[in-house]
């Protein structure tokens, strides 16, 4: 499941290549993956590609939107017609991508053609992801349940004016409201803060020096401030590195990278802490694994 930095990375990539292009064809290969009447978007220009939590939003002309959720195995690949290597790739990394299978392939559910001949493929092995046509009212309703945005504004978010960016006072209120809940659970509660999952909650708390099992009510003002700063620091760094699930794609074009290569604690049980050289531990908190350093986090 892609977390917020992965979605932000693909959104930035798609916004660059798709803004201003017109949708000239929509091919629906699996009906379950596409909700809406395609005639409503044919011939329409894409104004911008942006994001709210892990939803990808294509803003189209005349008040229409394409809302996309990649879920577990969804993947978006944009390909230029003139320069085949000019691509934007994001979402779930899989064998077919590594092998560079010709598109569309058997897991392609929907694809779009644009007026310059370029194409955007929506591949989804397990068919949990979807694309939906909505108008502004429906978009607002669908996104109304989501918590604060933990990442700072990007160009397009500012334009939309719909986002609620998490401030340190918001984090304080959340913690005061749920003093008995564990801080790791609070960070991952999508109705409170949208887009942080298991990887980044462990990373944020390592960065802040706070143990994941701490009750929210036990945190000092200084610790809350450190957690807040760490949310920004860790997520911004992850976006810069192209997130986590992108690391496999990057290896395809020869370059190394991705956030997991530089993770402080996530998936590093038994390995050396990068700060103190002690051993990283793993513990079940709720249903999920938390990774932490028992020396650097209190
Ligand atoms: Zn340590």
UniProtKB/TrEMBL annotation:
GO biological process entries: base-excision repair
Kindly list the cofactors needed. Zn(2+)
- UniProt keywords, alphabetically: DNA damage, DNA repair, DNA-binding, Glycosidase, Hydrolase, Lyase, Metal-binding, Multifunctional enzyme, Zinc, Zinc-finger
Record Pfam families: Fapy_DNA_glyco, H2TH, zf-FPG_IleRS
Domain FPG-type, which positions?
264-298
Q: Which reactions is this enzyme annotated as catalysing?
A: 2'-deoxyribonucleotide-(2'-deoxyribose 5'-phosphate)-2'-deoxyribonucleotide-DNA = a 3'-end 2'-deoxyribonucleotide-(2,3-dehydro-2,3-deoxyribose 5'-phosphate)-DNA + a 5'-end 5'-phospho-2'-deoxyribonucleoside-DNA + H(+); Hydrolysis of DNA containing ring-opened 7-methylguanine residues, releasing 2,6-diamino-4-hydroxy-5-(N-methyl)formamidopyrimidine
Q: Does the keyword Ribosomal protein apply?
A: no
Superkingdom of origin: Bacteria
Q: Which GO terms describe its molecular function?
A: 8-oxo-7,8-dihydroguanine DNA N-glycosylase activity; class I DNA-(apurinic or apyrimidinic site) endonuclease activity; damaged DNA binding; zinc ion binding
Taking every annotated instance into account, which residue ranges of this chain make up the domain Formamidopyrimidine-DNA glycosylase catalytic?
2-129
The record's annotation in CDD domains points to:
EcFpg-like_N (cd08966)
| Annotated family | Belongs to the FPG family.
Protein name (Swiss-Prot/TrEMBL): Formamidopyrimidine-DNA glycosylase
Species of the source = Candidatus Berkelbacteria bacterium Licking1014_7
């Amino acid at each position: 499941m892609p977390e917020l930095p992965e979605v932000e990375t693909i959104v930035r990539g798609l916004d660059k290549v798709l803004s201003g292009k017109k949708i000239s064809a929509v091919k629906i290969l699996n009906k379950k993956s596409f909700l809406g009447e395609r005639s409503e978007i044919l011939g329409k220009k894409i104004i911008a590609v942006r994001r709210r939590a892990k939803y990808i939003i294509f803003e189209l002309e005349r008040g229409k939107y394409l809302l996309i959720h990649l879920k577990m195995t969804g993947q978006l690949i944009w390909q230029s017609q003139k320069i085949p290597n000019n691509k934007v790739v994001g979402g779930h990394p899989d064998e077919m991508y590594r092998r560079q299978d010709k598109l569309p392939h058997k897991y392609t559910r929907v694809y779009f053609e644009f007026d310059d001949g370029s194409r955007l493929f929506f591949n989804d092995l397990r068919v949990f992801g979807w694309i939906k046509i909505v108008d502004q009212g429906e978009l607002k309703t669908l996104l109304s349940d989501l918590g604060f945005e933990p990442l700072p504004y990007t160009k397009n978010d500012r334009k939309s004016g719909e986002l609620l960016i998490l401030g340190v006072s918001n984090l304080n209120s959340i913690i005061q409201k749920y003093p008995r809940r564990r801080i790791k659970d609070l960070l991952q509660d999508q109705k409170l803060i949208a887009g942080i999952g298991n990887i980044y909650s462990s990373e944020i708390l390592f960065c802040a020096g706070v143990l994941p099992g701490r009750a929210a009510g036990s945190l000092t003002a200084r610790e809350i401030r450190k957690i807040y700063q760490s949310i920004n620091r860790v997520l911004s760094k992850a976006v810069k590195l192209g997130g986590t699930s992108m690391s496999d794609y990057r290896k395809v074009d020869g370059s190394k990278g991705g956030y997991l290569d530089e993770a402080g604690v996530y998936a590093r049980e038994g390995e050396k802490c990068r700060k103190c050289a002690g051993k990283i531990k793993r513990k079940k908190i709720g249903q999920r694994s938390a990774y932490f350093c028992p020396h650097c986090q209190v």
